[in-house]
Amino acid sequence: MNVENIIQVQDLVKVYPGDVKALAGIDFSVGRGEFFGFLGPNGAGKSTTIKILSTLLKKTSGRVRVAGFDLEDSSSSMKIRRAIGFAMQEVGLDDLSSGRDFLVMQGLLYKLGRREAKSRAEELLELVGLTDVAGRKVGTYSGGMRRRIDLAGALVHRPEILFLDEPTTGLDPHSRLAIWDHLNELHGEGTTILLTTQMMDEADQLCQRLAIIDNGVIVAEGAPGALKDDMGDDVVRISLTTDGDGIYEKAQSVIGGQGYVTGSLLDEEGLVVHVQDADSSAPAVLKLLIENDMEVARLAVSRPTLDDVFLKHTGRTIRTDNADGDAYDQTFRQSMGVGRHR
């Protein structure tokens, strides 16, 4: 394994009880100081992967190396835990403690002296913008404030690697941007960050490289810009006024035979068509639909996005998949005897 990579994963497999395969032999690596993203819908295997890397969940097979330590070595778990910080998707905090006391306690648990723990708590409260409410009980914090104090708790011991499992899910836009700012600052200081997300804009804005995972398989990997550039063609999105049975399939068939069309897919909003040179192709597509008695409600042209990359590799959108819930995460919680906390 490459010593320049702080995280290396080879042929990682995880099968839950009931023969539920959450990971089907994935390979990826993260360089020291890199901001790496795991992008995918609920149930794709994101949380399973990050829990294995952080020693919270045993793998079925494969090789994993984190911060220079091999998970195969039984003595590695505690060494890995000292090297990482982990903020989970569902925050479990002591609602009766103040934000300041929570961070001091975290410092003491990581064997910091009391004076150092107090100093580190004040430093982190300033970092995440919670100094003014540090004396309030965590139970009175908003969702965004709880995520920020949890992030601060994961940083108490100055970890080499920060694992974040969907850190902004359910937050309002202002709180999301605040978290993004903190993460960019941490990354600028040299912290390696591995973030899981189902939000395209989050992956696009934060990550230097990302892996797109679906049904336990990595279907694409690379820098966000490169993944979009690899799509090559322009994208034409079409909505029709009539939504009868088979109408979009008919439109897809009519358009598909044209030489300027390089591919097409259906999503929940209509028809997505990849074309060469949208300036000339989009009017031709519109004319063709009208000639076949189809009324177009909306036709929009854009460059490829990460949504298009995901759609190309999986045949569906993340938004469609997310309605199904995270079956793998539910299975994990049941197998570990953990209830849901919202």
* Cα-based radius of gyration, to the nearest Å: 23 Å
Known CATH architecture of the largest domain: 3-Layer(aba) Sandwich
Question: What structural class is derived from the secondary structure elements?
Answer: alpha/beta
Which overall shape is indicated by the principal axes computed on the Cα atoms? elongated
Q: How many structural domains can be distinguished in the coordinates?
A: 2
Query: Quaternary arrangement of the chains shown?
Result: single chain
CATH class of the largest domain: Alpha Beta
Model regions low in confidence, pLDDT < 50 over at least 5 residues? 323-342
Task: Describe what you observe in this structure.
This protein is α/β, with parallel strands linked by helices and 342 residues long. The protein folds into two domains: 5-227 and 323-336, Rossmann fold; 233-303, Alpha-Beta Plaits. The protein has helices at residues 46-53, 76-83, 99-109, 114-127, 143-154, 173-188, 200-206, 224-231, 247-256, 278-291, 306-314, 318-321, 327-336; strands spanning 5-16, 20-31, 35-39, 61-66, 69-70, 84-87, 161-165, 192-197, 209-214, 217-222, 234-240, 261-267, 270-275, 296-302. It has a six-stranded mixed sheet with strand order 6-7-8-3-9-10, with helices on both faces. It has a four-stranded antiparallel sheet with strand order 2-1-4-5, with helices on one face. A four-stranded antiparallel sheet has the order 12-13-11-14, with helices on both faces. Helix 3 (99-109) crosses helix 4 and helix 3 (99-109) packs parallel to helix 5. The longest helix is centred in the middle third of the chain and has 16 residues, at 173-188. It is elongated. The model is unreliable at 323-342 (pLDDT under 50).
